[in-house]
Amino acid sequence: MKKIGSSLAFAIGASLALTAPQAVVAQVPAALPDKESVAVGEATDADGTYVVSTINKRITIDRGRAYVVDPWNTALIFTVKKGMVTLQNFRQTGPDTFEADDLPMMGKVVFNRQPNGTLQGVVQGVMGEAKYALVPAELAEVPSDDIPIGAPPTPEVALDRIYRVHVSGSRCDGTQMLRGGFGGTFKLSIVDPVGVTTESRWRNFAVDCKDDGNRSQNYAFYENGPGALTITVPADGASADRLRLITRNRKNLNFTEYSPEIEEILAAINFSSQLSVGQSLDNQITVKSGKTTLIATVTVNRVQ
Questions:
Q1: Tens digit of each residue's pLDDT (9 = 90 or more) over 107-144
Q2: CA torsion 225→228→234→235, rounded to 10°?
Q3: What backbone torsions phi and psi does residue 230 show, to the nearest 5 degrees?
Q4: How does strand 128-136 pair with strand 216-218?
Q5: What is the 3-state secondary structure (H, E, C) of 150-176?
Q6: Is 46 exposed, middle or buried (0-12, 13-18, 19+ CB in 10 A)?
Q7: What share of residues in the chain are helix, strand, coil (percent, to 5)?
Q8: Per DSSP, what are the bridge partners of residue 57?
Q9: Angle at the Cα of 154 (from 235 to 58), degrees rounded to 5?
Q10: Distance between CA atoms of 34 and 133, rounded to whole angstroms?
């Protein structure tokens, strides 16, 4: 395995054994091997999934090595990715004692198993002694007073929600149809949770408004294209604002722009319980009203 410099090793290891992860955007993968590149060893009765007490992230001990389940960022710009190996040569030295090579800390770690299964670890790394505990994941789901270090987290990590909004159709309606029709372009606009206005591209529409004509047009094929608007809502509760459907005239009719806030669609985006992943919601928007009416259908689909 390629050797890690001592300063780099400490930056990675500090997030494992000493401090909570920092609010940074890590872009450089840590210099740790992937589990597929590390040969398996002998299984022990400590094999299983654990939560690292100091950072609330899961790792799995499996046949001589431990690899990352929940990725995390270090105090600098490095990211520890899923599947990276943090402990190598994990071995049992007694009924309740274990040793391993702690790769981020570049030192040997000695674990003593507690009555509840927690592995209490002490590592002699390049920057001195550090301590952390590996709490069995099944215990971390239900907080227990006898877990010695750290606040047990919920293993499931809350994910940002991602929605895709698009115009899925348009049609004419009314009691007196025109001899021509409506035509022009649609686009969608939204203010995202950080206050930035995001817009889709303009998309053409053309609808006949004759009694014997085709009074609807299908826009389903724009669902995944540039005519769709993708919005990410973070798990921290921030919300999007001012979702609008904007139209532009192309046939010299008597409307130029229509931009209402689409409250039902916006509510589905901002409230996580409204839509499950894969579910969608349609909302019909009256763009031009009168004896002849132009109606657009806007669809939101939750993709994450």
A1: 899 999 988 889 999 998 777 788 888 988 888 754 44
A2: -90
A3: -105, 130
A4: unpaired
A5: CCCCCCCCCCCEEEEEEEEEEEEEECC
A6: buried
A7: 10, 45, 45
A8: 52
A9: 105
A10: 23
Of the candidates 296, 304, 158, the residue with the CA atom closest to the CA atom of residue 231? 304
Residue type, 191: V
d(CA 6, CA 13): 10
In this structure, the number of other CB atoms found within 10 A of the CB of residue 39 comes to 8
pLDDT of residue 78: 65
- 159: buried, middle or exposed (CB in 10 Å: 19+, 13-18, 0-12)? exposed
For CA atoms 26, 27, 28, 33, the dihedral sign is: positive
Please provide the average confidence, as pLDDT, over all residues in the chain: 76
> In the structure encoding, which two tokens stand for residue 223, read together?
């669902």
Q: Is 264 helix (H, G, I), strand (E, B) or coil?
A: helix
